[in-house]
Amino acid sequence: xxxxxxxxxxxxxxxxxxxxxxxxxxxxxxxxxxxxxxxxxxxxxxxxxxxxxxxxxxxxxxxxxxxxxxxxxxxxxxxxxxxxxxxxxxxxxxxxxxxxxxxxx
Length: 105
What we know:
The chain is α+β, with helices and mostly antiparallel strands and about 100 residues long. The chain has one domain (about 5-105): Alpha-Beta Plaits (2-Layer Sandwich). About 30% of the residues lie in helices and about 40% in strands. The chain has 3 helices and 4 strands, in the order βαββαβα. The chain has helices at about 15-25, 65-75, 95-105; strands at about 5-10, 30-45, 50-60, 85-90. A 4-stranded antiparallel β-sheet has the order 2-3-1-4. Helix 1 runs antiparallel to helix 2 (about 65-75).
């Protein structure tokens, strides 16, 4: 197990994804944010099944930065209840994980 995690969030448009990604990297809360999309999401919201095209942000950071990343996403995101999910990075190349830890320290 490493100290590194990947946090996932999704946005309703590419501009918002770019803005959140840039802010996280500029604030040194993430070493890298990859943006993929559009992806098709199907979810239940306020009693209705919704379908939406969204942009997926894959945020590489460390466990100690999680609370700050969550707060920044909540601050910058337009959704009332944005997806914020952290997944452990159990293994990875030693060089990449060292680089990542250095970026967010």
